[in-house]
Amino acid sequence: MKKLKYLYLVLVFGLLVCSVVPVKAQCAMCAATVESSSKNGSSKANGLNNGIMYLLGAPYLAVAVVAYVWYKKYRRKDVDLNMRGEKLNLN
Question: CB–CB of 42/34 below 8 Å?
Fold first, then answer.
């Protein structure tokens, strides 16, 4: 059953990767401005790309910081548990 789940997961992921469709994620005005300015030798396209990369990286950085703080705060310490030696009935 576990192998079937992995096979299903790989199949779905493979279909998602194979069905990539190029999209235009900019508004028409931004795309036209960047295209015309890059033809004229302006560096607006580089600035736009750097801004996109900055906006892309900010959420990942925030999640990484929260994960690091959570890990440092809640990681297991070497605590001696004084448990009884007898078996516990959990029913």
Answer: no
Q: Which two tokens stand for residue 15?
A: 């279909």
Task: Select the more confidently predicted residue: 76 or 32.
Answer: 32
pTM value surpassing 0.85: no
Among candidate residues 76, 45, 68, 2, the one with its CA nearest the CA of residue 10: 2
Per-residue pLDDT band at 24 (split at 50, 70, 90): low
CA–CA separation, 27 vs 24, rounded Å?
8
Residue 30 has pLDDT above 80, yes or no: no
Secondary structure, 3-state, 30-57 = HHHHHHHHHHCCCCHHHHHHHHHHHHHH
- pLDDT(29) > 70: yes
Give me Rg for the CA atoms of the chain.
26
CB 19 within 8 A of CB 1: no
